[in-house]
Amino acid sequence: MKIVAARLIVCSPDRNFVTLRIDTDEGIYGLGDATLNGRELAVVAYLEEHIIPCLIGRDPFATEDIWQYLYRGAYWRRGPVTMTAIAAVDVALWDIKGKALKTPVYNLLGGKSRQGALVYAHANGSDIPSAIDSVKKHIAEGYQAIRVQCGVPGVLSSYGVPKGDKPYEPAERGLPSESVWSTEKYLNFVPKLFEALRIEIGEDIHLLHDVHHRLTPIEAARLGRSLEPYHLFWLEDPTPAENQEAFRLIRQHTVIPIATGEVFNSFWDAHDLVRNQWIDYLRMTIVHGGGITALKKAADFAAVYQVRTGFHGATDLSPVTMAAALHLGMAIHNFGIQEHMPHSPLTDDVFPHAYRFEEGYMHPGDAPGLGVDLDESLAAQYPYQRAYLPVARTLDGTLTDW
Ligand SMILES: [Mg+2]
After folding, report:
1. Which residues 6+ apart lie within 8 Å of 340 measured at CB?
2. Is residue 119 part of a domain?
3. Could you tell me if 137 and 267 lie in one domain?
4. What CATH number corresponds to the domain at position 85?
5. Per-residue pLDDT tens digits for 135-183
6. What helix, strand, coil percent values describe the chain, rounded to 5?
7. Pick the catalytic residue: 138, 212, 288, 353?
8. Active site annotation includes 384
């Protein structure tokens, strides 16, 4: 089998997605997600100008060799644009391999290690009562693990909280919006939120919380310690992770489980975190971390240190990535949990898929390959629109981490 063509489909069914389609001489094609939120067209150019010409004529089964060719062969390694482009190729090739062998991709990665992938939903509210209502709504839908974000009194547009009555979607069309942040108000408020939640819903549901990289290590340590009575499943991105050593300080002060990695694009971003056991969950995502080939290795390395996975699964990843994450999550032994922020009904129409949600778990389905397709004629009705994530400033106007 040979690769005979590859092209990009860029569409915006409620938000932007970039999809790579690779075609073979046997009529089998594969899809890879190439979406990099807010920098979408940089990946398109990287693929069209620099990668696709190198793919034509290659054997699509050679996933390891092609990965190495694109990573080592470029000389310039790592970075989100490069690794998203490599991931798109890698995932499309695994899709082709599964279709050609007439088996779901999880069977090529070790087979099923579990019956379903535990997922967590996003609950949010402008205040504590509405956050509790949102959590109860998700429990009624069958979720057993729920991330909770809440408006902080005195802080406009807190992270993870929708502005109106639409589902939360941080990427907005037009130029970046600005939000305001106060660490002091946040640190005083969050323990009250989780105290109220445990009183209201009891002990059985897993609760998670995302700090979104906004604290210093010692502030994160204080938050972790103050949340210990409410036994969270994890505290996510407590501090920016460019300096992996920062997590040592958090670890010295609290036993709250720590998750990080959604912005990582190489396992080297997580190497010290994992080998020193400063984190409990690795949140790298297939689409930004180099694909299934790279994430399988990252997960296997993490397994040695009892670090489990918690793959990023927000709406900035297309259904192709969600499917890839579910196939990998079904196969690896150290799967922890999968984020599930459902796509809009329109996005689901553009990307028909075999995966499904059932009683707190997701299942990749048993279709050959990844089990996701792309309705190109529908996608063509929703052309790309420039969109960005917000930026954040502290109360005095200083730019801070969003
Ligand atoms: Mg997050």
Report:
1. 119, 120, 121, 313, 357, 362
2. yes
3. yes
4. 3.30.390.10
5. 999 999 999 999 999 999 988 777 888 877 777 778 888 899 998 899 9
6. 35, 20, 45
7. 212
8. no
